[in-house]
Amino acid sequence: MSVMVWVMGGAGFYPRMAPLEAYTKGPAWVSFEEDQKGTLTPGKLADVAVFDTDLVKAGRTRPADLLQAKVLYTIVGGKVVYDSQLSRTIEAP
């Protein structure tokens, strides 16, 4: 079962995940590339930032925690380009 949570926005109520989908699925759909990108699905293209905090959960329960979230890894084109353990950006091949 899926639970839809609605939050108050400037223009009224909208589903909590709507801003995330507007930033990910929306552009892929508009550019007719939803079969290639827009969701984290095997075989699709994706650039990803991995955080030490569940950003969705923090946004729901403790929004102040969002300000303390740290990036652990950044993956671009299937390659790790930033690793917080190394405290530096990794040179692209």
Characterization of the model:
- This protein is an alpha+beta fold.
- The protein is flat and about 35 Å long.
- The termini are far apart.
- A hairpin with a 4-residue loop joins strand 5 and strand 6 (88-89).
- It has two domains: 1-37, no CATH class; 47-93, no CATH class.
- Mean pLDDT is 80; it is low at 1-8.
- It has two helices and six strands, in the order E-E-H-E-H-E-E-E.
Helices and strands, with pairings:
Layout: E1 6-9, E2 12-15, H1 18-30, E3 48-51, H2 55-61, E4 71-76, E5 79-83, E6 88-89
Per DSSP E runs of 2 or more residues, the count of β-strands stands at 6
Q: Characterize the main sheet.
A: 4 strands, antiparallel
Distance between the termini: 44 Å
Give Rg in angstroms: 16 Å
| Overall SS class | alpha+beta
How would you sum up the global shape?
Answer: flat
Instruction: Please give the order of strands in the largest beta sheet.
Output: 3-4-5-6
- The domain tally reads 2
Low-confidence stretches: 1-8
Give the % helix. Answer: 10-25%
TL;DR?
With 93 residues, the chain is α+β, with helices and mostly antiparallel strands. It folds into 2 domains: 37 residues, no CATH class; 47 residues, no CATH class. The chain has 2 helices and 6 strands, in the order ββαβαβββ.
Key phrases:
22% helix; 27% strand; 4-stranded antiparallel sheet; 2 domains; alpha+beta; single chain; flat; 6 strands; 2 helices; 93 residues
